[in-house]
Amino acid sequence: MMAIRCALAIVLIALSSVKGQDPVECIHPYVEVGGRCLLIDPWVKGSMETIRYMCIYHSGDLLWLDDVYDCDFYRALMDHLHENKLNEHDYWLGITDERHEGIWRYLKNDQDVRMGAPYWAVNNPDGSEAENCAAMLTGNAYYWADVKCDSEYSGICRYAK
Question: Smallest Cα–Cα separation from 118: which of 151, 73, 160?
């Protein structure tokens, strides 16, 4: 019986450390999605600048990804959008190449953006000098696309700790 309890304890410890992250508690109006705190507002639309200011007003910034858990988080985000019927809207990403054409960086931390699969749509970014911002578009199955910064899309804000 003692051996079974020890084995069970080891399994529980192993399972609890699989993610390697502590539970996340989000402040209102943010909700936890994939270990991050997000504010997804599909009903307010505006230019990238307008939506970014909305995020900053709520102590966040437009969506950015981390290096370590980015694919898992993005998958969790896609699941959340579909499960909550938020998948009929286009959303801004906190990504631009406005400072240096062709060099895509996150607005929040000025880190390089991963190019190509699994995020960007085929032939995106396409190198157009008029399209300096990035969005997740329903027409691209939420693969990223470069778009004009004054287009009007909804926002996904991530809490900036």
Answer: 73
Q: Which domains does the chain have, with CATH numbers?
A: 31-159 (3.10.100.10)
pLDDT at position 160: 87
Which residue type sits at 89? Answer: H
44 vs 58: CA distance, rounded Å: 14
108-142 pLDDT per residue, tens: 999 999 898 889 999 999 878 899 999 999 999 99
Cα 21 from Cα 31, distance rounded (Å): 17
Q: What angle do CA 58, 142, 89 make, to 5 degrees?
A: 55
Chain Cα centroid distance, residue 42:
14
11: amino acid identity, one letter? V
Convert the pLDDT of each residue in 37-96 to its tens digit.
999 999 999 999 999 999 999 999 999 998 745 888 999 999 999 999 999 999 999 999
Whether the CB-CB separation of 43 and 145 falls below 8 Å is answered with no
pTM score? 0.82
Name the nearest CA neighbour of 91 among 155, 141, 143: 155
CB-based contact 26:39 (threshold 8 Å): no
